[in-house]
Design brief:
- This protein is an alpha/beta fold and about 550 residues long.
- Helix content is about 25%, strand content about 20%.
- It contains 13 helices and 26 strands.
- It has helices spanning about 25-35, 45-55, 75-85, 100-115, 130-145, 160-170, 185-195, 220-225, 245-255, 290-305, 385-395, 415-425, 540-560; strands spanning about 10-15, 40, 60-65, 90-95, 120, 150-155, 175-180, 205, 210-215, 235-240, 260-265, 310, 315-320, 325-330, 330-340, 345, 360-365, 380, 400-405, 430, 435-440, 450-455, 460-465, 470, 475, 525.
- The strands form six sheets. Strands 10, 11, 12, 13, 14, 15 and 26 form a seven-stranded mixed β-sheet that branches. Strands 2-1-3-4-5 form a five-stranded parallel β-sheet, sandwiched between helices. A five-stranded parallel β-sheet has the order 17-24-18-19-20, with helices on one face.
- Strand 11 (about 260-265), helix 10 (about 290-305) and strand 12 form a beta-alpha-beta unit.
- Helix 2 (about 45-55) runs parallel beside helix 3 and helix 9 packs across helix 13.
- About 45% of the residues are buried.
């Protein structure tokens, strides 16, 4: 059997060429990619070619076919590729303009909705058809990011140690490739020996330039990535607290419009969206975009406009007298205006038995980097929103089974319809009107093996196999550190001029002027994204608020 780490990956093509004048897709691919990939012309026998690649231990990066080409069991070539090579990208070959045919268009939409394909690929009209090569290159880049073959980081740590998982997640959210090795693996032992060290029970990180960091803190990790961790020496026009979609959008617009801009983020880029494996409905990305890549692009955009970033640093206080003073550790930073984009975090379930597994086999949030570690395992996702749906879809690539657990009677009111359709197509079990009430460990007491589920209406309980639990409910805004002058509702969400009042609380602006739509009760302090009361919990909405708020910042600074 071939060693997949030394054998070049495979690009498999199955097409029936009717236009002899057009170049054959395998020939076009071979000219451009033949030195790095094995191009397999499978003709009308792609199932046999896929089986042979699997038997030889090869890696398939991309499958291009001009039809479903079902095998003897009725399974399409795309479904077979997904089962044998879950990371492989899959494209339906089309002639240029074929999408104008209603039947062809419907076929593409159905194939994408059922996750048979990642996208369609227009056949090349010449060997140097750069539109064709751009699509292929994008698909290959996505594949390399998924399998970790891009130049990136390696984390050596034990699977049951929460810090191992945290380091991997922090790195992945900055858009880099991350591989995780067990300390006892041959690769890990070879790396450690080459660095003249042994594993001592704490994580070790190898950087892309070959450097080795032992038990790095968050700031060490950010610095190794080339991300800023230093605070400015003097005052800034606007300080943005939080580097999720809303904060990054605000940074792009503030810096591009000439404002001296500081972004302070307690963790890593992207916020909750940074953990999403694929955001399918974000404008301008027809195949979808991962939260990590979207955050990385936004960071680069803000950086080239001159925004300063300070990552892995936490704002612990805010003085609103005579302008704004942020307390970041023992350092004070002055700002003319402040934009709150701190987002939300997930509340812990009130199930004490889960606590010892948190960070190792129980995860709060939709962590895309943990999906591959669930290969062959039974996995549950708790939550009925889009984040839960995206997590379940990504986990289904690898896990033996994925179940979605919700307290409500259906997903219709809380999840986008395209996600519901894809969950159904993949056979993800939807467990309604239920909640987790207990958890059980393996013999060593290290990993989760079972959970107990209670049916809300009847109280009936049952134990089910569960080796990975992902929880995406109970959002809580990170606003407890704000001064009392900043009005919040009883859950901690910040009131702005556009916020709706509590049904059981008095009008927040009674006896005072209503501030602007995104301005808080403190002039010059603005709130955008999930931390703001009455905000729409969508990435595009957060980006819109972050973009729009800068015009209000300009007006405030002009008044000063």
């Amino acid at each position: 059997m071939a060693d997949p780490t030394t054998q070049p990956p495979v690009i498999l093509v199955a097409e029936d060429r009717e236009d002899a004048a057009a170049p054959a897709v395998p020939d076009v691919l071979r000219r451009r990619y033949g030195s790095d990939y094995v191009i397999v012309d499978a003709g009308r026998e792609p199932h046999a070619a896929l089986a042979a690649a699997a038997a030889e231990g090869r890696t398939v990066a991309l499958v291009l076919a001009d039809g479903d080409l079902p095998g003897e069991d009725g399974e399409t070539v795309f479904a077979r590729a997904r089962h044998l090579f879950p990371d492989a990208r899959r494209g339906l070959l089309l002639d240029w303009g074929a999408w104008a045919d209603p039947a062809t268009a419907q076929r593409v939409l159905e194939a994408m909705s059922s996750l048979q394909i990642d996208y369609y690929v227009v056949r090349p009209h010449a060997t140097a058809d750069e539109d064709f090569h751009r699509t292929v290159t994008d698909l290959l880049r996505e594949w390399r990011g998924a399998v970790g073959h891009r130049v990136g980081y390696t984390v050596i740590g034990e699977d049951h140690a929460p810090r191992t998982h945290v380091l991997e997640q922090l790195l992945a959210r900055t858009g880099v490739s991350v591989a995780r090795w067990h300390p006892g693996s041959a690769d890990a032992e070879r790396l450690l020996a080459g660095a003249g060290m042994t594993y001592t029970g704490v994580p070790v990180v190898r950087t892309p330039d070959g450097g080795v960091i032992v038990d790095p803190d968050d700031a060490d990790l950010a610095a190794s990535r080339g991300l800023g961790t230093d605070l400015p020496d003097g005052p800034v026009d606007v300080a943005i607290i939080g580097a999720g979609p809303a904060g990054l959008a605000a940074a792009v617009y503030a810096a591009s419009e000439g404002l001296s801009t500081l972004v302070v983020e307690r963790e890593s880029l992207g916020g909750q969206a940074g953990g999403s494996s694929l955001i399918r409905n974000y404008l301008g990305f027809p195949r979808g975009v991962s939260g990590g890549e979207l955050a990385e692009r936004a960071y680069q955009q803000a950086w080239v406009f001159g925004a300063q970033f300070c990552l892995a640093r936490r704002v612990t206080g805010l003085d609103v007298a005579e302008g704004f003073t942020l307390r970041v550790g023992d350092v004070a930073v002055r700002a003319g205006a402040v934009v709150l984009a701190t987002g939300v975090s997930y509340r812990r379930l009130r199930v004490p038995a889960l606590d010892r597994f948190v960070g190792a086999s129980v995860f709060y949030g939709a962590s895309s980097v943990e999906a591959k570690a669930q290969r062959g395992r039974a996995v549950y996702v708790v939550g009925g929103g889009n984040s839960a749906g995206q997590a379940a879809l990504h986990l289904a690539r690898y896990a033996a089974s994925v179940s979605l657990l919700v307290r409500g009677t259906s997903l219709a009111a809380s999840m986008s319809s395209y996600l519901i359709a894809q969950l159904t197509a993949l056979g993800v079990e939807i467990v309604t009107e239920s909640r987790v009430v207990d958890a059980f460990a393996d013999a060593a007491g290290e990993r989760l093996t079972e959970i107990e589920i209670e049916q809300v209406a009847t109280g009936e309980r049952r134990r089910v196999a569960c080796e990975g639990l992902f929880i995406t409910i109970g959002a809580r805004p990170r606003t407890e550190w704000l001064p009392p002058e900043v009005l919040r509702d009883r859950w901690g969400y910040v009131f702005t001029g556009a916020s709706e009042a509590d049904e059981d609380a008095p009008e927040p602006w009674a006896g005072r002027g209503v501030p602007g739509p995104l301005e808080t009760s403190v002039p010059g302090l603005f709130a955008v994204g999930d931390t703001r009361r009455s905000s729409v919990k969508r990435v595009a909405s957060a980006v819109g608020e972050g973009s729009v708020v800068i015009s209000s910042v300009h007006r405030h600074l002009a008044r000063r």
